[in-house]
Design goal:
The protein is of the alpha/beta class and about 280 residues long. Helices cover about 40% and strands about 20% of the residues. The chain folds into 2 domains: about 140 residues, HUPs (Rossmann fold, 3-Layer(aba) Sandwich); about 120 residues, Rossmann fold (3-Layer(aba) Sandwich).
Length: about 280
Amino acid sequence: MEKILVTTDMSVNSKAAIRFAIKLCKQRNAELIILHVYHLLKPFKWSEQAFTVYTDTFKEKTAKELTAFIAGIYQDIHEPEINHQLVLASNTDVVDGIIAYANKHNCSYICISTRGAGNLTKIFGTHTAKLINTSEVPVLCIPSSYHLKELTHVLYASDMTDYENELKKVVDFARPIQATVAMMHISYPYEFTYDRELAEASLRQKADYQVSLLTPERDITRTLLEDIDRAIKSTKPSLVVLFNHQSRSFFEKLFFPSNAEEYSFYGKIPLLTFNKREGK
């Protein structure tokens, strides 16, 4: 059975990812794992026994708080509880703990809430930014202000590098939820012009799925992020897919410009990111 991992610090911001993960697990008939990573420092003067007792007490209290936190989310969305696990994991680094658990338990996706405007770490939060750049498990980034909607249309932004393998991963996500897929390549004026019907027929054959092709023209007077943002506003996808396969983080290149906060898609639409190492 497919496993989807959602991480939470039991903050209000983390609720969006949990709501999203619950709905996604229902659509995919997947098992939901709700993970809280913690770290306790042992006081120098404490004995091992005293620290063990303290740790057990902390875990019991935290488990009760997490159970109540999740129950409140189900109540908010008026949904019956689905098959899920509540997991507490100890690690000195939150992201390392998330990745270690996801890898050990063969999770298909990691779901995490994101924050809002600013540069990469401010847009996504420090933990999410690190997950995007280091996790071999695909990461679903859910804006903390996101209102739960049906996932009906997936937009895959491609630079045409290894697009056949990338498209298969996109289709693997879209097929179980019966979402439509569009592959978008922002093209420069000097690039080869595609015959749309032939290109879409080829994509359909390679992916074994209906895939539409979008080729908005690159405007060099604007940033790449602005071009992507404009295209997303016009197509209104339910979710955007990006692949991180440049030598320097694609997301650093994309989101570090000083005017990045002007662009809104990352604050409103769930983002599914794949690291190059995923699926080697």
